[in-house]
Amino acid sequence: MKQLINNLKGDKGIWSFVALLALFSFMPVFSASSNLAYIGQGNGNTLGYLVKHIMHIGIGFTIIFMVHKIPYHYFKAVSKGALYVVWVLLAYTLVKGTVIAGANASRWIQVPFIGVTFQTSTLAAMVLFIFVARYLSKTREVPIDFKSSVWELWVPVFITLLFILPANFSTTALIFSMVLMLVFIGKYPLRYIGIVIGSGIVFLAFFILIAKAFPDAFPNRVDTWISRIDNFTSDKPGEDDYQIEKAKIAIASGKIYGLGPGKSVQKNFLPQSSSDFIFAIIVEEYGLIGGLGVLALYLLLLFRFVIASHKAKSLFGKLVVVGLGFPMIFQAMVNMAVAVELLPVTGQTLPLISSGGSSIWMTCFALGIIISVTKKEEEIAQELKDAAKREEALQKLIDRELDEEGAIAGGYSIEDKATNPMQAVLNK
C-alpha cells in the first residue's frame, strides 16, 4: 500500500478529498438502495448494490491512476477529433437511447456485449471543455476575431448542445454555463460573450416554440423538462412534487445529528434515493452536520482546483483544470439545491457519491486529467530544483579548481591552505 501511495503523483490534496468522498459514499448508497432492491428483487437486500458501487468506484480510481500518467497536452491534440465522435454518439443516443428502469429518460446507450449503459452527455461535456480550452490557448497571442471564433468555437459548441438539449435540458444549461465561465476566464471579449448569451436565449426560445408546436417531432424528454420548469415557477402540482416532498421530509427528519446510518425512512419512498436525491438521505441519516461535512469536502476540492489552476504554467493547463474541475463542484451544488427545492428537478447526480457507472467513470476520467496537470507542474518544479542543485555542485567544483590554481601559483598545496592558509604563506 505504501508503494502504491508513493506511485501517486500530482496534487495530494485532490487525491485525498476524492478518496474521502468515495469512501463516504459506501454507507449512503448501501442504505439508500433499499427502494431499488425492493423493486428489482422484492427482498430489500442492498448488499448487491453496495458491491456494484464498490466495483464502480474501484474502476473509477483505476481510471484516475491510468489517466494521470498520460501527459495532459495529449488530450489537447485529440480534442477536435474526439468532438466528431461525440456528435455521432449523441445522435445515436437521441435515436436509440435506452430507458433505464426508475429513471424515465432516454439519455443512455447500451454498450454492446458487456451490457453497460453509458450516458453520452457526460463524455460530450468533458470533450467540449477540453476543446474550448484548446481554442482559447491557441488564440492567446493574437486578437480574437468574432467572425472566425463563431465558426471555430461557437458552432461546435452549439452543435453539441443541440444534440443534448432535447433529452436533457439541465445538462445543456450546465455545460453552456461552464463554457461561458471558461471563455470569460480565458479573456474572451465581454461584448462577444454578451452576443453569445443573447443568441443562446433566442435559440432556446425558438426551440421551445418548435417543440410545443410539433410535439411528435421530439419524442424524448422535451415535454418533461418544460413541464418541470413550468411547475417550479408557477407552483402547480406535478409528478416531481412527490420526490421533492419526500426529500424535504427526509432533510427535516435529520435535524442536527441525524437518525443514524441506515435508519432513513424516506429512502423507501424516494424513487431516486441512491442517485438524484441521495443528499436528502445523507442529511436524514447524518443530520445537518453530515450534510455540511459533504458540502465542506466539495468546497475543499474546489479550493484545490483553484490552487492547481493557479500553479499551472501553461494557459491550456489552467483552463483544463477550471473546465473539468469547476463543473464537478457546480453539479454537486445543483444536486443539493434540488433536494431543498431551490431548483427544479434536474436529474444531476452527486459526483463520486451517487450510485452509477458511467457518471462515476467520467468524473474520474476528468479528475485524472486534472491530476495529470498538477503532476506536470510537480515534474517541472523538481527539474528546476535538480538543475539548481547541479548548478550549485558545478559552482563548488569551479571554486575548488580556482583554489587549486591559486595554491600552485602561490607555492603551497590546497591541503596546506585548507589546514592553515597563513602558515602556508609564511613558509613560502
From TrEMBL:
InterPro entries noted in UniProt: FtsW/RodA
Location(s) in or outside the cell: Membrane
Pfam families according to UniProt: FTSW_RODA_SPOVE
UniProt superkingdom: Bacteria
Protein name: Probable peptidoglycan glycosyltransferase FtsW
GO BP terms in the entry: cell division; peptidoglycan biosynthetic process; regulation of cell shape
Coiled-coil blocks: 374-404
The reaction(s) this protein catalyses: [GlcNAc-(1->4)-Mur2Ac(oyl-L-Ala-gamma-D-Glu-L-Lys-D-Ala-D-Ala)](n)-di-trans,octa-cis-undecaprenyl diphosphate + beta-D-GlcNAc-(1->4)-Mur2Ac(oyl-L-Ala-gamma-D-Glu-L-Lys-D-Ala-D-Ala)-di-trans,octa-cis-undecaprenyl diphosphate = [GlcNAc-(1->4)-Mur2Ac(oyl-L-Ala-gamma-D-Glu-L-Lys-D-Ala-D-Ala)](n+1)-di-trans,octa-cis-undecaprenyl diphosphate + di-trans,octa-cis-undecaprenyl diphosphate + H(+)
Record-annotated membrane-spanning stretches: 14-38, 50-70, 82-101, 113-133, 153-185, 192-214, 277-303, 315-340, 352-373
GO molecular function terms listed in the Swiss-Prot or TrEMBL record: lipid-linked peptidoglycan transporter activity; peptidoglycan glycosyltransferase activity
Enzyme class: transferase
PANTHER family in UniProt: CELL CYCLE PROTEIN, PEPTIDOGLYCAN GLYCOSYLTRANSFERASE FTSW-RELATED
Organism ancestry: Bacteria, Pseudomonadati, Bacteroidota, Flavobacteriia, Flavobacteriales
GO CC terms: cell division site; plasma membrane
Organism of this sequence: Flavobacterium xueshanense
EC number per UniProt: 2.4.99.28
Keywords: Cell cycle, Cell division, Cell shape, Coiled coil, Glycosyltransferase, Membrane, Peptidoglycan synthesis, Transferase, Transmembrane, Transmembrane helix
Family statement drawn from the similarity comment of this UniProt entry: Belongs to the SEDS family. FtsW subfamily.
Bilayer disposition of the protein: Multi-pass membrane protein
Main location: membrane
